[in-house]
Amino acid sequence: MTFASAEIVTERAAPVGDVTEAVQVIVDHYETRGDWVVTLLGQEASNERIRGITVPGKQIHRTWVETVFGPQLFDRTETAGPAITDLLSVATDVYTWKLLRRDRGLSRDQTEQRMRQLVDAILASREKES
User: What distance in Å separates the CA atoms of residue 94 and residue 38, rounded to the nearest whole number?
Assistant: First the structure.
């Protein structure tokens, strides 16, 4: 893991199983780095060097989701677990933050609330992966 990746992992550290704190931590991270990350993601298809940053970043995010929401994912079936992880990844993704915070112009608190609502709804769901 590079120094930059380690720094990102440290910034995103959140108590395992605490949805409210997890969303607050990820929004903190996006408030600091989100605009820069969105810019990089927009260039990754045409720039190999940028892809070298974004691809590991995506894996860091998925690992974060699996770790932070681990207790909630633990009792899921093997088929539902990956689907729930996918949905939680989307609910807490930088693009979700951008849509709410930048595109919709919501306050930080409103953004956190909506992201929490998404996470809560996903965790409450018992739907199986199709």
Answer: 7
HSE of 14, CA atoms in CB hemisphere, 13 A: 25
**Most distant CA atoms of the chain, gap in Å:** 40
118 φ/ψ sector (left φ>0, alpha ψ -120 to 50, else beta)? alpha
Q: Is 79 helix (H, G, I), strand (E, B) or coil?
A: coil
Other Cβ atoms within 10 Å of 106 Cβ, number: 16
**Distance between CA 50 and CA 43 in Å, rounded?**
7
Sign of CA dihedral 101, 107, 113, 117: negative
Query: Residue 108: how many CB atoms within 10 A of its CB?
Result: 15
pTM here is: 0.87
pLDDT tens per residue across span 5-49: 778 778 888 989 899 999 999 999 999 999 999 999 999 999 999
